[in-house]
Amino acid sequence: MTQLTNICAISGVLVRALPENTTDVARQLESLPGVEVHVCDPAGKLVVTVEELPGEKLMVDRLTEINSVAGVLAAALIYAHQE
Q: Could you read off the pLDDT of 14-66 as tens digits, one per residue?
């Protein structure tokens, strides 16, 4: 039986930002623990991953933080994987 403390999770998030704030939003997102920006489109679309290390349960909190970043219009969980 796998214990919860051994589970690592990676989630994919699609973020929509105001186009004029895309670079600043990407910088702010990168400053959040476990968050990495992979695509930063000038039109305001960002592809982000959130990594939870074993024992962490932060995805919901991190998604709330992403939505709270100035310039973010919306953030949606697109993909989640645990192992």
A: 999 999 999 999 999 999 988 999 999 999 999 999 988 766 667 778 889 99
Identity of the amino acid at 37: V
| Separation of alpha carbons 65 and 39, rounded Å | 19
| Buried b or exposed e, range 12-46, using 16+ CB within 10 angstroms | ebebbbeeebbeebbebbeebebbebeebeeebeb
Q: How many residues in total does the chain contain?
A: 83
Transcribe 3-72 into DSSP letters.
Answer: -GGG--EEEEEEEEE-GGGHHHHHHHHHTSTTEEEEEE-TTSEEEEEEEE-TT---HHHHHHHHHHSTTE
> Using one digit for the tens of pLDDT, what is the confidence trace for 1-19?
445 557 778 899 999 999 9
